[in-house]
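Fold this sequence, please.
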Amino acid sequence: MTMAIDQQAIGTGCPCGTDKQPTEVFHTATRRYVRCPICDLVFLYPRPTRESIEGYFQEDYDSDYGEVEASDDRKPVFQSVLQHLSFHRSPPGTLLDIGCGDGEFLVLCRQTGWNCSGIELSKPAAMRAAQKGIRVLSPHAVKSGDWAKHFQVVTLINVLETVTDPVVMLRQATAVLAPGGIVVVRATNGLFHLSMRTPARWIGSQYDQAFHWYLYSTRALTVFMESVGLTVISLRNSKPSRGPLSPVHPWFSQMKWTMSRAVLWPLSQTLYVVTGGRLVWGPSFEIIAQLRGSG
């Protein structure tokens, strides 16, 4: 049974801008998630403020997740996104990765011939990226207008889950796109993760009961992209990361990632192929969109 949420209590409802009331999807001891009836986005209620998000990523994120992000766990993810990009764009050209972390994805892109830049709120991660020779722009570069219509490609790899407003972020990304440019997004797949909540509880994985601030469907991202002048040209499952399999992680976390790689990933890919790409059921998906009217 779903429960209507008071729109006035949220302050700002769904980023799609509807005045329709969201309905409750699930809650934990500390978090509550609702679904927009118009675009299908599942999001944290209430949504976090810009100040709290920027403060966390600038000061605390790296100590919480920097070691994992700096390891090779994410390499399959970066390779998957780069391969998908290569089907639609080839270097030379300019590429901006928003939320670039310590720059490992951009190192891969640079090796293939892209002229790479990144934006990163985390100060330690930005410093590591700069040490690898990556040009790291100011976190406010997409707002300033200095880089308007400059980049052929803008990538956001698991960034839209943790921003104040994903529509605003997509609008800023399109503002720095050159004519004919494309936006590449990797996002957490709500269809998959919501269906995995019960199995996760069976193995005691309580941390899997709450997601990031936004949990996407392909419909939600398509709606958002179209609202800022983008047209979706490609959609597919994204290869999962290797996962945190170090001894410090509990057995159920290690089992979860092992199952994801060994069972769920091949299954999701098989369903994707059998349905002609109509069923995107991996843990994350990749979506590529082009500026409308770019040909």
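The domain at 62-188+217-291 is CATH 3.40.50.150 (Rossmann fold). Confidence is low (pLDDT under 50) at residues 1-11.
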